[in-house]
Design a protein that fits this description.
Oligomer: single chain
Structural class: alpha+beta
CATH topology of the largest domain: Protein Transport Mog1p, Chain A
Number of domains: 2
Distance between the termini: 78 Å
Radius of gyration: 23 Å
Strand content: 25-35%
Shape: globular
CATH architecture of the largest domain: 3-Layer(aba) Sandwich
CATH class of the largest domain: Alpha Beta
Order of helices and strands: HHHEEEEHEHEEEEHHE
Length: about 220
């Protein structure tokens, strides 16, 4: 085989290889269309526990709540602290989200009837996202309280330590000196999850504001 023939065959193989690579690739939009969410920030990866598809997955992979659920007589309403900044919820599983002070966020999750898991399991899973400096189990130091607000059972959770946010397979962020305040309210048709996380100094200053918001809960959204 002469030099020109070998060169021509090599060029054809190179073109064919490029075509195969391009054909096998996909844009983020195409990936999202088949149910795999594009890369997102750790806050969007972190979800309330006990859902069969929650651990380490993006909210974009979970079906949104059924139409009409969590609204009207089946919804909840609350009073937002004055200095909290409301943001547009990132997806249908978030009923609300707020930016609070220096580096803290509060997200209200709602997954629909039969979804999201029970309060105790969620509280334990939230605690497990924190490492303790003395090596103790975070469940040992977690504060856990049950109250009733407007006839709704509510579970309150408090835990501090190093927060492993969205950590799975080495991805996510590790945040020392963080604090979580959580509330799980048994709404008319499903549980609602209020998760407030951020630097301990920020969250601790807002502790009474968070409690007041939870205690303002009422039926009807």
């Amino acid at each position: 085989m002469n030099t020109m023939s070998r060169s021509l065959i090599g060029s054809c193989l190179l073109v064919a290889t490029i075509f195969v690579v391009v054909a096998c690739g996909s844009s983020p939009e195409e990936t999202a269309d088949v149910g795999v969410a594009p890369e997102s920030d750790p806050a969007q990866v972190e979800l309330p526990p006990d859902h069969p598809s929650l651990e380490g997955l993006s909210e974009g992979m979970i079906a949104p709540p059924p139409p009409g659920s969590g609204s009207g007589e089946a919804g909840l309403a609350w009073t937002v602290p004055l200095d909290w900044i409301a943001e547009t919820p990132a997806n249908p599983m978030r009923k609300a989200q707020y930016r609070v002070g220096d580096g803290a966020t509060c997200v209200v999750y709602y997954f629909g009837p039969g979804e999201g898991g029970d309060a105790q399991s969620n509280a334990a899973r939230w605690a497990d996202q924190f490492e303790q400096p003395d090596g103790r189990s975070p469940r040992e130091v977690m504060l856990f309280e049950r109250i009733e607000v407007a006839g709704l059972p509510v579970t309150l959770v408090e835990v501090t330590g190093t927060y492993k946010e969205g950590v799975m397979g080495g991805q996510g962020s590790v945040n020392p000196g963080f604090m979580l305040l959580g509330a799980i309210a048994e709404g008319p048709d499903a549980n609602w999850f209020f998760k407030f996380t951020g630097p301990e100094s920020t969250v601790n200053r807002q502790k009474q504001a968070f409690r007041a918001m939870v205690e303002s809960l009422k039926r009807g959204g």
